[in-house]
């Protein structure tokens, strides 16, 4: 228990909300999902709360029945590039599906975001649902191809991120030496789905390379995550499930020769919190009044007074079911309420930071610096 990291916290910014009714609330800009000022304000507030990250989920295929947020939203890396200029410490995580993108492009986009933000980028590498095959000219593929494709995709992106050793660029104007070509490495990857020669034309960042997150549930998913992920999202509905998922995944991480302490289990929670239980009930009723007549909203798992929610969080964290709490706000004041009411209690309990430790995402998450695979010197 002694070397257990402090609890980490992130917020998923879902524009108008990850629900059907949030956009109707008087305090929610109805165009929040396409409103950069809204995203900037939420990210800056999360940084005031000393959160580790803002996280953007994504969708690959839509239809008219989807939640309003998915119907009109920004693309993730574009938003995060803007947020990187409006924040200084908080991590910036984009979701990009390995089933519907090209590894060279993703490696380049994410490495650029990592440099633009000076070491604060993360990539949530998901397979996504098979619906996206119809949007990305891949109708010849099937669901069973998605994980084999993801494996190749990750091997390529990680390889490309090592294209240059850390000291490859000399930029010596006097002697006219821009870089050391011996420290540049092509990849020459030949796979079933992708073939990529490389190298990538961008150097490594202050944190080495973006942090890789993943989300999924199956055994096939866990096999890939235990090799390539540094944090994994899990549905936070059920404590016992999150705990057993954590135990199983960390067991597989250890089998890969990696330290389970450097692997984050990240349950998502769409909490509602108030100063008192009653205030939380009122917020829930407010939201229910925005639903069509007769519809109820399931009570979030983390619900009630700030004290009660802080105790629930502590329980999940100490039991090993949660290393990083990934918040979604159900009510438009959700993040503000959490930062104002719950964060001070978690800080008082000593399980959450009062100040950022470092400037990089990897540094604040307590994850090790990834050495370049070609590094020959002893340089760190
Ligand atoms: C906690 C969690 C979060 C997810 N987030 C997204 C997302 O933002 N966008 C998306 O397209 N799919 C998302 N997925 C779906 C996965 O990409 C994947 O399609 C799904 O989990 C099926 O794979 P599995 O059988 O391994 O679970 C998420 C899955 C989980 C469990």
Automatic annotation (TrEMBL):
Tell me which EC number(s) this protein carries.
1.14.-.-
Q: Which residues bind FMN?
A: 58, 95, 147, 218
Is Kinase among this UniProt entry's keywords? no
Source superkingdom: Bacteria
This entry's Gene Ontology molecular function terms read: monooxygenase activity; oxidoreductase activity, acting on paired donors, with incorporation or reduction of molecular oxygen
Transmembrane ranges, per UniProt, are none
**Which Pfam families does the UniProt record give?**
Bac_luciferase (PF00296)
**Keyword rRNA-binding: yes or no?**
no
Q: Which top class of enzyme applies to this chain?
A: oxidoreductase
What's in the keyword line of the UniProt record? Flavoprotein, FMN, Monooxygenase, Oxidoreductase, Plasmid
InterPro entries, per the entry? Diverse_substr_monoxygenases (IPR051260), Luciferase-like_dom (IPR011251), Luciferase-like_sf (IPR036661), NTA_MOA (IPR016215)
Q: Where is the Luciferase-like domain?
A: 24-321
UniProt cross-references to NCBIfam families, sorted A to Z: FMN_nitrolo
Which family, according to UniProt? Belongs to the NtaA/SnaA/DszA monooxygenase family.
Name of the protein in its database record = NtaA/DmoA family FMN-dependent monooxygenase
Question: What species does this protein belong to?
Answer: Priestia megaterium
